[in-house]
Amino acid sequence: MNKGATFQCSRCGECCRHINLIPQLAEFDLGDGVCIHLKSNLCDIYSSRPEVCRVDMMYDKYYSDRYTREEFYCLNQEVCKKIKTIL
């Protein structure tokens, strides 16, 4: 995977429906785990979304010394799968 690759999000919105699992996003929680910025299954602040919501930025800033980009994306895909089973 080349450095210019980006995380491929399916845009299901499930991560935005379970932000109660991410302490850094507590201020965005409607009280039921759903992000206040989730509108019609999309983020209405996407271009200015929090750092923790940016997989590529998180990799570059915090995890590039621990994982390859491909490994980090795989880990994130696994989390996506787990979140989808919460339904």
Report the sheet with the most strands, covering strand number, pairing sense and barrel closure: 2 strands, antiparallel
Shape: globular
Strand line-up in the sheet with most strands: 1-2
| H/E series | EEHH
Protein structure class: mainly alpha
Residues in helices, as a percent range? 25-40%
Q: Helical element count?
A: 2
Q: Give the averaged pLDDT, no decimals.
A: 91
The tally of strands reads 2
Low-confidence stretches: none
Question: Topology of this structure?
Answer:
Blueprint: E1 38-39, E2 42-43, H1 55-63, H2 69-84
Key features?
87 residues; mainly alpha
Question: How would you sum up this structure, described in words?
Answer:
The chain has 87 residues and is mostly helical. 29% of the residues lie in helices and 5% in strands. The chain has helices at residues 55-63, 69-84; strands at residues 38-39, 42-43. Strands 1-2 form a two-stranded antiparallel sheet. Strand 1 and strand 2 form a beta hairpin. The longest helix has 16 residues, at 69-84. It is globular and about 35 Å long. The termini are far apart.
